[in-house]
Amino acid sequence: MLVISSYKSSAPLKVTPAPNPWPDDYTSISGMENYQKWGPYNVHDPACKKFGDTYYMYSTDAIFRENKKVAKDRDIPMGYIQVRKSKDLVHWTFVGWAFPDIPQEAVSWVRNNADGKGATNIWAPYIMKYKNQYRLYYCVSAFGEKSSYIGLAESTSPEGPWVQKGEVVKTNRETPMNAIDPTVIVNPDNGETWMHYGSFFGGIYCVRLNPETGVVMQKGDLGHLVARRANYKVDNLEAPEIVYNPQLKKYFLFVSYDPLMTTYNVRVGRSDKPEGPFTDFYGKVMADTTDNFPILTTPYHFNNHPGWAGTGHCGVWREENGRYFMFHQARLSPKNQLMVLHTREVFFTPDGWPVVSPERYAGTPLRKVFAEDLIGEWELIRVHEPIHKRPLEAGQILWGEGLLKDKEQNFSFLVSLKKNGSITGTKIGSWKFDFSKMLVDMVLNDEKIRNLVAFYGHDWENQTETVLFTGLDSSGRSIWGKRIK
């Protein structure tokens, strides 16, 4: 039996009622005429940065119940790349659209190389600031084609207007990679700037950029391979995001696996250099064809909620105070059509791996967790990779297969953490808490799980403030927990 200490009173802190900032089902305001109310809604492929005291988010222009005729009839200024802003990462204002149209250079390249198809939207933007200029990277493509174009626009304001600067990278049917999903990182030691991009076609590539211009150092350079999977017809890989952790002196490359509407999930690797090579939890190189771990998010289901699918394509932001946040899309189950922004706090384990909160961020004030606060009834989720192989087209599910199959959602189970250090319920075992490090160790059915990060947060399913934990098991799969009583 494991004995716990660091008690501050005789009873654990009560789980406190707290309303959610907004409802998850936005069907009632999904019409085009309500676009100004789409704060956390219709978010797809988000990229977010803080400029001054304001967070700005840019995302693919994916809209549930899109109706261009209604937009035209009502004089709605619909365009390309959705823009939002927030002061607190919780309440978002829909600013509008970045571009009035798709740059003609991008349209011409895509359609000339895809038999006249594609270039009907702008996907997966990425935002950064260089000196006094804001740089907005974007991509234009044809679905199921490698005929793609990553372009760059600049502005003196994060809200535009934007001036087109032209091509960064472009690909076609002859290239091994796909010019889509850009993310950019600057090496703080030497100022080198690198862009990672790519998809199921060939994998993720990395190319060096000229920091002064924001485009490639050498025209026509497509870069080198940094991540891939064995068979893109059944094993999708896309949506890179690269982040530097100055405390660990490591670069972390987040990628998304599998089809976006259903079993989308986030993996991560790390490197000493922004250009790689990146290795995973097992020390395997991500440019090899082995599936990589850790796995951070997958479809999940806590009690008192229909659950989520499509939890992928993330952006990550580091605050000046050292806190990290992940932003990703998620689709409200069971139909998986409504696209809702998920913002999760990111923590790093003592082993140097990022893990994410089991719950969305809602502005819960920071406070210490005491051992006694962990005593009570808990709902846990073991985050596992998809168990079904689906037939895919262009890395995505076939038409009509937008629902999750049996056991594709990670369901929760209940346990009790007792004052004497034991665990009872669906699984049995023991636990202990290191107050100095805010870490929980557990034994569940003889399985040892170490270094679970404990913190306070918001329980969206039960509309309460409570104690949470997150971490990795010995196989590199996330484990999430929240105290419900």
Which key features would you list for this structure?
43% strand, Lipocalin, eight-stranded antiparallel beta barrel, 2 domains, Tachylectin-2, Chain A, 485 residues, mainly beta, 2 helices, globular, four-stranded antiparallel sheet, 32 strands
Textual characterization of the structure:
By secondary structure, the protein is mainly beta. It has 2 domains: 25-366, Tachylectin-2, Chain A, CATH 2.115.10; 373-483, Lipocalin, CATH 2.40.128. It contains 2 helices and 32 strands. An 8-stranded antiparallel barrel has the order 23-26-27-28-29-30-31-32. The chain has a 4-stranded antiparallel sheet with strand order 2-3-4-5, with no helix packed on it. Strands 6-7-8-9 form a 4-stranded antiparallel sheet, with helices on one face. The longest helix is centred in the first third of the chain and has 9 residues, at 104-112. The radius of gyration is 22 Å and the shape is globular. Mean pLDDT is 95; it is low at 1-9.
**Broad CATH class of the largest domain:** Mainly Beta
Q: How many domains would you count in the coordinates?
A: 2
Q: Helical percent range?
A: under 10%
**Mean pLDDT over the residues:** 95
* Rg from alpha-carbon coordinates: 22 Å
Please list the strands of the largest sheet in the order they lie side by side.
23-26-27-28-29-30-31-32
Q: Percent of residues in beta strands?
A: 35-45%
**What CATH architecture of the largest domain do you see?**
5 Propeller
| Strand runs, count | 32
- The CATH topology assignment of the largest domain is Tachylectin-2, Chain A
Low-confidence stretches: 1-9
Number of helices: 2
Morphology: globular
The helix-and-strand class reads: mainly beta
CATH superfamily of the largest domain, by name, is Glycosyl hydrolase domain, family 43
Report the sheet with the most strands, covering strand number, pairing sense and barrel closure.
Answer: 8 strands, antiparallel, barrel
What is the straight-line distance between the termini?
Answer: 23 Å
